[in-house]
Amino acid sequence: MAACYAISAIDRINISAARIAGMNEELAFNIGDRYSIALLVFFITYFIFEIPSNMVLRKAGAANWLSFLCLSWGLVTLGAGFAKKWTDIVVCRLLLGLLEAGFFPGCVYLISCWYTRYEVQKRLATFYGINILANGFGSILAYGIMQLNGKAGYLGWRWIFIINGLMTVVLASLGRILIVDFPDKVYQSRRPFLKPHEVKAIRDKLDRDRADAEYDEMNLKKFIRLCAKWELWVFAMHFFAVTTIVYALAFFIPIILQGFGYTTGMVFLMSAPPAVAAVPWVLFVSWAADKSKMRAPFIIMQAVLGITGLMIVAYSAKNGARYFGIFVGLAGANANIPCVLAWQANNIRGQSSRMVASGLQIAFGAIGGIYGSTTFMEREAPLYRTGLWAVSGCQFYLITATCCMTLHYWRRNKKADRGEVIIEEMEGFRYTY
């Protein structure tokens, strides 16, 4: 799943590499806001289809649905390599958003159903860390593919889409074989990797932790009740705030580095180290968060790191210092993804509730992508100070909202300790903060 998600992220952001590799000139993306439009439209369909896809996931089965999505967006990416005009890329981005929409929330939902509350962040960090690592080397891969410039009459940017698309199709085939289903369905599959008594041991552990190993059917009344829970919307806005900085850095790091005056080759090579260096930090933070059974302090710490990194990029006079700022900002931004996802997963009970909650939360990541891709204005290149401040503002919001949620959960836990309330309809359950 991590490999498939990693290739999805590469397929999503390789437009920035393609732009540098000749797409800008051949399809006239340097006119007006065409590039920002191409970034923006992806997130429209990505937002709409998150929750519906999670509902299909339970019915169709994890391997069937997730591998189908991966195969489909791989074919779309392949098709983008044959675009004739800039609007063709826009249509491909719309389809890419539609097809990638369900993969990440589906994986988060599936992982959260296999592990207890204080096991889950390490697993989410590993899943997401492989994606960060692949993205780091994705820039080097893109530079290598660019050397095919002129082969078969295609410019380098076309080969980026074609080869990435073919890689995605291969991974989708492996996903169909290797992705496993939910704990309550896995022993029913044609290739069960667990025996019934092993599945029972896992389900017993989940029931001791939060009493929701058994799937509870979704219905309209329950869906409306879940959508009325204000906490879910706060967590959705948490994810929005985190993804603004992640997407902004992913889309604009190559362009910012190009503004330093480096050659195209150096830009691609220098895009990799900040992403690779972030991975051990993401894994360490997630291990520490699970070990301490806390989330909020780590979220605040990563937000501060993100702001620090962005301000160094915005205002440092030396390229070396600004490059260091990218390291700091990217580490803080990426480490907060599993933190925010795990915090919601810790405070939600019921598989159907988690299905809606994860879909809603990650859908707001699409809005973060829209925000992050439109606040960086072409006329401000290569400093993009307005965009950097706009993204920093979201991190200040994240800190404030996290403090408020911590206070709310602390009060609820105190009331439960006094016997005044029962949290999440389970005796002994306490919120994580």
UniProtKB/TrEMBL annotation:
The lineage of its organism: Eukaryota, Fungi, Dikarya, Ascomycota, Pezizomycotina. It is found in: Membrane. Residues 1-418 form the Major facilitator superfamily (MFS) profile domain. Its main location: membrane. It is a multi-pass membrane protein. Keywords: Membrane, Transmembrane, Transmembrane helix, Transport. Gene3D superfamilies: MFS general substrate transporter like domains. The chain crosses the membrane at residues 35-51, 63-82, 94-115, 127-145, 157-179, 232-256, 262-284, 296-317, 323-343, 355-376, 388-410. InterPro entries: MFS, MFS_dom, MFS_trans_sf. One of its GO terms (molecular function) is transmembrane transporter activity. GO terms for cellular component: membrane. This is MFS general substrate transporter. SUPFAM superfamilies: MFS general substrate transporter. Pfam families: MFS_1 (PF07690).
